[in-house]
Amino acid sequence: LAADPPALRGRALVLMDGHTGQILYQRNGNARIYPASTTKLLTALVAVEHGSLEQRIEVSASAVDKGPDSASCYISEGDVEPLEYLLYGLLLPSGNDCADAIAEGVSGGRPEEFIEWMNETAQRVGATRSHFTNPHGLHDPDHWTTAIDLAIIGRAALVSAIFSFTIS
Q1: Is 162's pLDDT higher than 70?
Q2: CA distance 151 to 140
Q3: For this structure, is 66 an active site residue?
Q4: What span, in angstroms and rounded, lies between the C-alpha atoms of 88 and 105?
Q5: In angstroms, how far is CA 81 from the centroid of its own chain?
Q6: Cβ distance 83 to 108 under 8 Å?
Q7: What is the pLDDT of residues 64-95, one digit of tens each?
Q8: Beta-carbon count within 10 A of 112 CB
Q9: Confidence bin at 164 (pLDDT 50/70/90)
Q10: Nearest to 152 by CA among 7, 35, 5, 8
Q11: Which of 40, 60, 107, 130 is catalytic?
């Protein structure tokens, strides 16, 4: 006996084989959507490619000034943290403050360059129907992607993580 399949409710859906990258199922996979916090997968990928986990990053006032309803990892202005710690804050509690601190720190204080790297990386890995304007995913009408591109970025981030980190 097989269970009934789960109800699929999203406007855009993709099921990708993580090993091969083959799209197994999609509904509106190329429809333009706002990625919100899934943007942080690309931020992490770019940070690992352009930075070093041991790199120490000083947190600026602009990185922590996101408003009361913004997801945070509760870093403070003036904190000096390793990139690795900020990546945990980026990906686990979805810290928008960590996203900005990473973009500023990895790019040497040029977050607009980090955004360029994000768009270049997305194109390079095959996410060709996307445009990113920030490292955290807070809404911007010019910040968009597709479900298929998100799956491609997620797969690239996972592959990068597998090859970048060793289990000790």
Answers
A1: no
A2: 21
A3: no
A4: 15
A5: 19
A6: no
A7: 987 778 899 999 999 999 999 999 999 999 99
A8: 9
A9: low
A10: 35
A11: 40
> Exposed e or buried b for every residue in 1-30, given b needs 16+ CB within 10 A?
eeeeeeeeeeebebebeeeeeeeeebeebe
The Cα–Cα gap between 16 and 21 comes to 6
- Residue 86, phi then psi, degrees to nearest 5: -65, -35
- DSSP-assigned states of every residue in 97-131: HHHHHHHHHHTTS-HHHHHHHHHHHHHHHT--S-B
pLDDT at 163: 66
3-state secondary structure of 15: strand
Structure tokens of 20?
A: 């091969």
40 is known as an active-site residue: yes
pLDDT band at 168 (very low <50, low <70, confident <90, very high): very low
Q: E strands within 21-122?
A: 23-27, 56-58, 80-82
Q: Which residues contact 62 (CB under 8 A, 6 or more apart)?
A: 100, 104
- Exactly one of 60, 94, 107, 130 is catalytic; name it: 94
> 23 near 14, Cβ under 8 Å?
yes
What DSSP character marks residue 63?
H
What DSSP designation does 3 have? P
The answer to whether 155 and 126 have CB atoms below 8 angstroms apart is: no
